Amino acid sequence: MYVIKRVRSASLLTVSLTATLSLLSLPCAAHHSSAMFDVKGLLKLEGTVKLFQWTNPHCWIQVLVPASTGVTEWSVEMGAPSQLYRNGWRPGTLMPGDRVTLVIHAMKNGTKGGQFVSGTGPSGAPFKSGSPGPQT
Amino acid sequence: MSARAGGALALGLSLALLGADVSAQEHWSGNDRNRIFATLPNWSGLWESKVSALSDNLTGYPAGSFAARTPSDIARLIPLLATPPYTPEWLRTQRAKTKSTSSGASPRPGKLCTDVSFPALLELPLMFQVFVTPEETLFLYENGDARHIYTDGREHPKKDDLWPTKRGNSIGHWQGATLVIDTIEVNSGPILGPGTADLSDRAHFTERVQMLGANTMEDDLTIDDPPRFAHPWHVSTQWTRVLDQDRMLPFDCQNDRNPVVNGKFSVAPPQ
Known about the structure:
The complex is a heterodimer.
Chain A: E1 4-9, H1 19-22, E2 41-53, E3 60-67, E4 70-77, H2 81-85, E5 99-106, E6 113-120
Parallel strand pairs in A: 4-6
Antiparallel strand pairs in A: 1-2, 2-3, 2-5, 3-4, 5-6
Chain B: H1 3-17, H2 30-39, E1 47-49, H3 50-53, H4 71-77, H5 88-100, E2 128-132, E3 136-141, E4 146-150, E5 169-175, E6 178-184, E7 189-190, E8 198-199, E9 204-213, E10 216-224, E11 233-241, E12 260-261, E13 264-265
Parallel strand pairs in B: 4-5
Antiparallel strand pairs in B: 1-11, 2-3, 3-4, 5-6, 6-9, 7-8, 9-10, 10-11, 12-13
């Protein structure tokens, strides 16, 4: 089964990536630009969790994905623990062996990694997304 | 009158009205200190930048960030990413430097776990608390970074006792319920990474911090940097109260997997 799927191209207009634009997503968990990710494309990974890192500056899901060439390991970057915590996540939310489906912005340079966009957990239910939003 | 002199005067006037003995770094007696304390606003609780409040918790990115198409879109999301009013001379120098610099910087390990500079602290998604006392207002961030704003009339240290640091040296005074902060000696360089507003170590920062409502605080920042800017640069940023947490979470930053390779962030395998 080939379970790495390029889902669709995001309908973003082509932009001239000035230095400033390339730093657009800097506030990801306080940390870095998203220039390394293909933010116009979405890639779907279906596999099993090898490791869930509940760490700063980012949480990471290491996921093993069967492919035509054998099993490949992907590194999927998420927000910081303090951000995931506010969505109900905890260090034990994902365990080794859990089956997950993850949609990511993949690395542009071909490295097997990317930025988490959405996903479903072992129960098949989608991970709840969202933001606290400004308080009024 | 300079901001510093104005601040000292304002503090002196407020203390004189309270009948307190006025001198720099005064250790007030219990009753005087209590009376001064009672005049100060209560900014307790947890706070975060508006950018942080608008970020998706699982991705860590602000909603709409990938759809932003123009510099003004970006500046609306993150005011410190606006383009400052550089002098024509500075822009010419930078263009020449860019042309003469070869591409492909050497790899370096990640540095995302180091402490954060001012004024980047104002907008990065770190929760923080604000402790207001007669002697100082302390901004304490979840990663352990702190800003000490001394409000007891003391001046900045003498020139020989100052050197540029990530958060500089700050003093402040109260104008009613507004805290006016004066900051100098901040490390030079880009505020939020390569390509963002680039400051000299002569930059002088003035902030006016006040509540806009029960759950919103505003920081009006003016950066005066004559070596770089044609005129002072004004940036307004907002913070919002965190209502879904009752305390800071432990923050232990030891897993930076984003080294810079060929001048770009990358992803490293787990240790």
